[in-house]
Amino acid sequence: MQVFGQGEHAFVSSVAPENLRESLERYFNYPITGIVFTHENFPPEQFLEHAKINRIPVFVSSLSTSKFIILFTDFLDAALAPQTLLHGTLVEVLGVGILIQGKSGVGKSETALELVQRGHRLVADDAVRIVCRDGTRLYGFVSQTIEHHLEIRGLGIINISDLFGAGAVRASKRIDLIVHLEDWDEKKEYDRLGLEDHTEEILGVEIAVMTIPVRPGRNVPVLLETAAKNFNLKSRGHNAAKKFQERLARMIKEAVES
User: Fold this and answer.
1) What percentage of the chain exceeds 90 in pLDDT?
2) What is the pLDDT of residue 216?
3) Is the CATH code 1.20.140.10 the one for domain 83-242?
4) Can you give the three-state secondary structure of the chain, one letter per residue?
5) Domain boundaries in the chain?
6) How far apart, in whole angstroms, are the C-alpha atoms of residue 45 and residue 50?
7) Are strands 172-174 and 177-183 parallel, antiparallel or unpaired?
């Protein structure tokens, strides 16, 4: 994409038509995708004629050159970024983007519904389009086909936006945490202290991940709210599990020394 700013437009407009033709013939021999004139500057008629002959689109933008380049670069970065489609439910809880995953029937949609009722927001259910930005950030987007619908067994398909209002949904959210819901397994040893940080790689980006076992009596939405609060604390350098371990080690040391 070729961008003609104030200087380029002034040069093209100042060249005599008989001298401009040869330059334009050479210029349009290059494989140009499109041409944009910024600052609402219109190209000379001869320029448009050569563009038409070579079937190259010409656009005029009211933006300044620097502003257009920034916006267009950001657009290309989003459009050409690596992406994938994952099964799960993406919600925003206290500003934290949580991707809920687990086998069918474990309660992902029901958990999302309870979170929406508690004032949080739904991004996408069932199919989440994941886009990697800058090689360091993952964003989840709602599917245009499913939009903000939830499938609740026994109720059928419900529209969260219609039921709870536009404030209960959003089109995209950065993914900060992945939560795996699974049926409680008595033989499995689950993390009880939270001292180790577990991650999962998606599109080359490491995302914090945790596993929550599900069984009757466990309030999963409350656990996710707590996980979001704890994630925010960890992001500010406060790790409750490590502080507890340090305090316990200090107490044991003092007891031994005394």
Assistant:
1) 61
2) 83
3) no
4) CEEECHHHHHHHHHCCHHHHHHHHHHHCCCCCCCEEECCCCCCCHHHHHHHHHCCCCEEECCCCHHHHHHHHHHHHHHHCCCEEEEEEEEEEECCEEEEEECCCCCCHHHHHHHHHHCCCEEEEEEEEEEEEECCCEEEEECCCCCCCEEEECCCEEEEHHHHHCHHHECCEEECCEEEEEEECCCCCCCCCCCCCCCEEEECCEEEEEEEEEECCCCCHHHHHHHHHHHHHHHHCCCCHHHHHHHHHHHHHHHHHHC
5) 2-79, 83-242
6) 9
7) unpaired
How far apart (Å, rounded) are the C-alpha atoms in residues 256 and 258?
Answer: 5
User: 29 to each of 25, 34, 44, 58, 62, how far by Cα in Å?
Assistant: 7, 13, 18, 15, 27
Residue 42 token pair: 């219109």
pLDDT in tens, 35-69: 999 999 999 999 999 999 999 999 999 999 999 99
- Whether the per-residue pLDDT at 239 is higher than 90: the answer is no
Tokens 């199919």 belong to which residue?
127
Report pLDDT for 194. Answer: 66
**Max Cα-Cα span within the chain:** 99
Catalytic residue set: 87, 108, 126, 192
To the question of domain 2-79 being in CATH 3.40.1390.20, the answer is yes
Query: Rounded to an integer, what distance in angstroms lies between the CA atom of residue 68 and that of residue 50?
Result: 24
Q: For the full predicted model, state whether its pTM sits above 0.90.
A: no
Two tokens, residue 67: 């502003």
Q: Which two tokens stand for residue 250?
A: 């200090």
- Rounded to whole angstroms, the Cα distance separating 146 from 157 reads 10
